[in-house]
Amino acid sequence: MASSSSSPSSSSPTSRSRRRSITTVDAISWYFAALILALILVGSLRANSQADEQPVRGAQLLNRPCDEIYIVGEGETLHTISDKCGDPFIVERNPHIHDPDDVFPGLVIKIIPETPRKF
């Protein structure tokens, strides 16, 4: 009863090609993981370089566009925004503004200009 200790399937050509394809797939997945990591790093570096820009202040506020969605800047009031954008009904169109005097930088408001923008 002399039998060999290795099974015939472990040395078969299909078993070797299967191991080779698993190794190849594993290597490809690592390359894609490295590629995704590199893209994330490049994206974060780009976002950090854009974050270093100076905020809009003072006379620069006049050059900002009056889009339908407007973000209040430093030193702005609803009156100045209304004059600049030509929307006298800012409070009526923005129910989240309970007190017109309580406007702060970063507040998001909806604007619908009724008159052309003043320059």
TrEMBL record:
Positions of the LysM domain: 70-111
Biased amino acid composition, Low complexity: 1-15
Region (Disordered): 1-21
Gene3D superfamilies: LysM domain
Family matches, as InterPro entries: LysM, LysM_dom_sf
Protein name: LysM domain-containing protein
Organism of this sequence: Rubroshorea leprosula
